[in-house]
Write the structure tokens for this entry.
Amino acid sequence: MSDSDRIEIQSPPTSRSVLKEIPSLNEYDAVRCDFHRIDSSITHTRAHPAALRPTIHWKLAKEAAVRMDGTYVARLMNAMVVGAEGAVITCDGYVPVDLIHAYGRDPRTHPVFDEQNSPQCCFLAGRSLLLGTRGGARNYFHWMFDIIPRFLLFKRSRFALLGIDHFLLNALGSPFQFEALAQLDIPLDRVKLMRDGTGYSCEELIVPSRMCIESKMWPWTIPGLSGIFLDRSAINRNRRIYISRELAKGRRITNEEEVLAVLYPLGFEKVICESMPIRAQARLAAESRVVVGPHGAGLSNLVFAPEQTTVIELFSPKAVNDAYWGLCDLCGHAYFYMLGEGNSPSEGVDPFDLGADICVPIDELRDLLRLAQVD
């Protein structure tokens, strides 16, 4: 940054009572924000998911047509980034709610609006790039479909030629995170971590839009991720894999041995993705023709699977989610799903119990495998 570009830092308002909401940085005055629109808004109708029951689960039915708001990259002067989720506060106290939106939460309840949560801020000279987001601490799904795509979006913008002094991210600690940073050529000594109760006052801040609000992915992320992590040379595309969550804290298959007794004779192999580098996970998915597994981050690797891969996703009745149906639709996979044992909540009632374990009805599993022509 040249001396002529530098301006005096002015701290945003410290009282949360004076913060003002705006839907997006697109709504911010162009005089105060250098805004670059990248993708226009789209509405996408998904292919019907397959299951044993003729009526699609209501959680999936309401996402049969999804709207994706347009993407952007914005350049702000004298902005703050506060908290572990990376809420942005402009120099005159505006908070773009699209950057703090989260599943099932009213943006107005975000801690950024709580007067008791005024953070201690560290000044960052030079140019900072915001990449971290809600769920981005150690969550593989959010790294693959929110954090890395935010970086790819930045690279598509007119700001891509600008040098970046600081990369703002959530907590680091998992091997896949360091692997991803190395693949993106992001130096660790330029990473600044976002934490609750703290913040950064940025001389200049580059803000890509959120990329995966409520688990909706942009189509261009599929070739983008493959280009980073996948080596397509000499790939055998006939493997059948079962993705286990036996090492996870929740959403495990309680009768996994019974499930494997059905799958092993059909040529399936059990895999545990947590122990594998991203490139190894990508290779495994690229070699697969059939993937079975409970709802979980391991299914993120379907982004690397060849078109027309058969996918069977296993849900708890207490936690049905459209993320991987949407991913399969974008990738051209044949998507099937089934619910575990237990009473399903009434239509319109969503416990969103992501930790609930799953007991798979074995006879239904056999029937679904026949329906998917995997038997």
About this structure: Helices lie at 58-61, 140-156, 175-183, 221-229, 256-263, 278-286, 323-331, 362-371. Residues 140-156 form the longest helix (17 residues). Residues 321 and 354 are 9 Å apart (CA to CA).
